[in-house]
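Project standup — Tuesday

K.O.: blocked on the structure for the chain from last sprint. Re-posting the sequence here as requested.
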Amino acid sequence: MKIRKLQIGAYGRFRDLDLTFEGQGVQMILGPNEAGKTTLLEFVRELLFGFGERTPYAFGTASGRIEGAADLALDDGRLVELRRRKGRKNTVSGRIEGGGEGAVDLDEAGFEALLGSASLNLFRSVFAFGLEELAAGEKSLADQSVKSVLFSAGASGAADPKRVLESLDADARKLYTDGSRNLVVNKLLTDLAELSKQVKGKSIRCEAYEQRRNDLRDAEAEAEALSADLLEAARDLALREKLAKAHAPWRELSLIRREREGLSAPQGFPADGLARFDAIEVEAARLAEEREKQREAAAKAERTLADVQFDPRLIERRTVVEGLYRSIEAVGQARRELPEDRRTRDAALRDAASRLAGLAPSWTLEDLRGFRPTAERKDRFDRLVAERDRREKALGELASRRDDLRGDLDEKAAELAALGEPADVAPWAALLLEADEYTKNVQDCDRRRAEHRKLQREADDLLPRLAPPLASPTLRAVQLPAPPREAVARFKLDLQKIDQRVEAAESGLRKDEAELAALEREVAALSRRDGDLPSRDLLDEMRRGRDAGWDLVRRKFAEQQDVEAEIRDWLADHAAEAVPDLIDAFPAMVRETDRYADELFRHSSAVAKLEQLHALRDRIRRDREALDDLQADADATLGRWRDLWADCGFVPLAPEAMEGWLDRLEALRGVQARLAENEQEGRLVREAIDAYERRLAELTGREGPGPRLLAEARERERTIRETERSRADLQAACVRLRKKAEDADAEIAARRADEAEWDARRIDLLRELDLPESWDVSLLGRVLQGLAETTLELKKADDREARIAAHEARLAEFEPRVRTLVEELAPDLIDAAPEQAAAALHARLTDSVQARERRANLEKNRADALAEAALRDDRLTRLQADRDALLAAAGAETADAFRAVAERAARIVDLENQARDRGREFDRLREPEPLDAFVARLESADAPGLEADRAGADARHKQLQARKSEADQKVGSCRQLLSEYEKGGGDAAEIQEKVSARRAELAAIVDRYVPLVFAQHLLKQAIARFEQGSRPEMLRETSRIFETMTGGRYVRVERPDDDEAPLQVRRVDDEVLEPHQLSAGTREQLYLAVRLAYVLHYCGRAESLPIVMDDVLANFDDDRSRRTLRALGEISGKVQVLFLTCHPHVVELGREVFPLLRPISLSPAGKPAEPAPEAGAGAAGEGPPRAGKGRRHRTLLDLSPSN
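H.V.: unblocked you, prediction finished:
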């Protein structure tokens, strides 16, 4: 599979981006950090295998509409249009073309079928990797075995299967190993064995119990045998199902192969030969038709040329004719404007003479033409006028300002006199400095009064809450010698503990009494049903008597001891009166003991109830005694509690209540202390307030409330200060105004002194202009203005005179030139007006030029048509050569014979594609069964037989399942019966519960242990299958790639004799090295060669996927990078290679290796990709064209040398 085109609708930073990948070689994408290389890589991954539900690339406008499309080329030549969007269902759509059945719609299931066994994890671990994975892989080469290296290349990147197996084995060994005593499973098995012994020892034995044990062993053995049979039947059923499913694909594959063997085509005959032959036929017909059209066009142009005529003389004099034609308008304008210009000139001259006579009677117009005031004189005049205006304006402003200043000075002096003599503000200021303290004291006094009232209310509220235990509480209660809080808390805790113990004892006693009543009723009912119940104590006593009798028998008859006295005592205690002899009495004793034991076993449940009744009565008696002791402890503790409060003169409440009473007493004590403190501080504040108010009364001379006196003092102090500030301001203002008035008088005098110098300069200017010295500047200005206006009128007359001369000259030149040209080129126009004759000549010139251009176009069209006809003749010749070559390749002389050969060749290609597809399907159904044995069984069977075998295996499997279920039920029943026997005594039942608990723990741990062992087994099988079928091929590919990458320095990658040892590489000098003896860069190349070898191995057996590399050459020098790129170029002939990098020098190395390389450049801002410029190309070249409205289109032309 190769990506031909990517369309990113919305993903990460990309919007509406199109990328086209052309060619078969290494394709480089260059971009600095943050340019979007990783985003592009993730888009390819998720487009092929699905957008994640929570992808980190859904931000900005992409959030909620992640989508994309791609044009894919499959290995069999079919084309796929894929569209995918982010969602939960119906996320894939598209079409498949070129499969022989026309275009087929594509959905998600269909695309997954195209991908085959590929998955997202496989793509991430095998086809897409970067520098980190490469570095980790080279480090692992020294530690991993041959099997691990080759298998891990396709399993999970740098993962070591050996380490995975070791980890699984270590986890399993933490749970169980043979011979261990400390591991959890071993401990549980030991506990179960010991508990089983205890159950056996505690349980009552009989023949029925042993029979149940034998039944259980037989049932378990039968179930185990059926389990093994069932497992074998399941394996047989799985194999037969695979055979039944694979039979039809195998037959189809065989038929396809036989048909392929029966077809042949000429050696080297192209697969698309028929399409090319048909295209040549169609193209030849089209070229022949176009050639005839071109020849007809040439003949038509030849006929039209004979009718085209023109005058070459007009074209030779074209410049003169066009010049005269352009002058027609100007000549006409001159004829129209000449009379008016003459009238305007005369009027302007008369007006200028009249004006000059009024301004300077002695001047003539020539004098006026010679009068040209210089710029320097104009500037001097302008300065004189400006200086005069500024001086007069300044004098007026200075006089007005001086008068205003003197008026303001008189007003300020009057205001200052009205203020009177100054007053002393110091006593008032000194007193008011203490005003803030006085105000604070007044506020503090008010606050303390409020605080006193509040505290008094709190005390009044607390006193009633001290009763009880006080009868009539007063403030003297704060002096009571109350005990400390810790003592009260300790008594509270002690009494609570006693109460809890009493409550618990009473509750337990009530429950035991209720249980006793129920048990007495149950025992009474059993006694009525069964009579007197046997006693376990009596049985033990009888067993002791039996054992003593056996001891006497042994000692008397075996050891020949004299034990007659002991025998008489034993007979007296244990033998019946009718049996006076030990020989008879002992067997009777044994039988009686066994009978009593059997009786006890038959009534074991009732005996257990009776024993439980006796034990419960004893427990109730002990509980009542303990309850009485607790009541005595409670009474003693209450006595000590009352003694603790004896000095207070009252009987205390419960400790819980007295804790709150102590809190209230402490609160009352706090309130009383705060009242005393508040009264003391209040007296001090009041004294300070009274002293300050007396000082206020003395200074103001009045009596009254302190705040009012303080306000009067502040007002008086403010008035004094404002008066003094006003006095100072007025004095400063008078000084300032007097100074300004004096300055104004001095400036007026200076301005008047400058007037004489200005008048001298005025007289000098009038003398230079030869004008009367008595003129002032105003009169001089008016005269100069009049002279300037008169000069303008005179200039208008002179301008008209120049226009008149130009008109007359143009007319004098135009008419002779027209007449001469008419006499030479068009005598028929000799009598026409000059302007009309020039226009007619220009019209004839235009017709001649158009006729000449038409003739040239016709000649060019004729030549082009003849050239196109010749070109098509040449193309027809080449097409005929191609057609002859195809016929020769097919060994045919006619088109029909050629089509027959081409159809056979196309059928061969189609059959080979079908064989590959059926072979893949067959391998998928067969694996992991061995190929040869599987095929042998298929060849010796037919479909009905295989289906019958499968049905028989299925029936046997179901039958064994039913028998296994019955056996399991039988095992359960046997265990249940045995469990009932084993629960004969109370101790045995408890032990049995422990056994069940241990078995439950063991089952939970076994659930963890079995998957670990099973996973080891499956992984070992997978490694073995891969080792058997793929290792030789992968070693050959790895050797070839590694030799290319190292420039022939290392010629082969080999396996050592020990599969657990690491890989070996053979140098060109025949020295064998291991990975740890290689440099880091060479190890990276070796790991990369192994990875690429697995890619080729995978793509040879399934649909290929593109390889995506991210800066894997970053640690290589230039020579090593070049050799590695050459190896990638060879790989790219079979598998598409996309190479991402942020290093421009790597791209330059790529251009050295691949001369036609044109990488894509990504901008840091995530803008559309653009082709990087060629090395040495200028920056002003045109960019690639835009593809479609609103969509950016770029092309990748990263080609390998093989292209």
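K.O.: great, moving the ticket to review. Residues 217-266+902-977 form one domain. The two ends are 18 Å apart (CA to CA).
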